[in-house]
Amino acid sequence: MDSIRDIASQLSRKGYRITPQRMMILESIENSDTHIAAEDIYAQVIKKYPRVNISTVYRTLDLLKQLGLIYEIDLGEGKIGYHPENKGHHHHLICRKCNAIIDINESALFSVKAVLLQAFNFDADLKHLALFGLCEKCRED
Fold it and tell me: Are residue 51 and residue 19 in the same domain, yes or no?
């Protein structure tokens, strides 16, 4: 709950109103164990606040993303997930055959970041990344 208050405080300091809908959206994101889709957030919020519109969810997600408070990640097949920035950076290996998602630590990509910087003078922002391929199980099939 502290992290929800922290995000709400950041929004308030930047001049954004802290509405009940925004608080419920923040709670849905923060309480999710995985990357949560906008539709899932909407389904949770509408149970508590039936007058909320899906466009409110999308606008709030866009605002939080712009302010760097959440990350948006394309998990393939049109699935977009959201993850709070305060839960840290991690990356995903996504099997394009069985759709398994394997989380990997940010340190696994340090060498990629270094190669990009050295070879292309490009400082990559590798905060949240999905890489697609085949998992061990599907490679054996």
Answer: yes
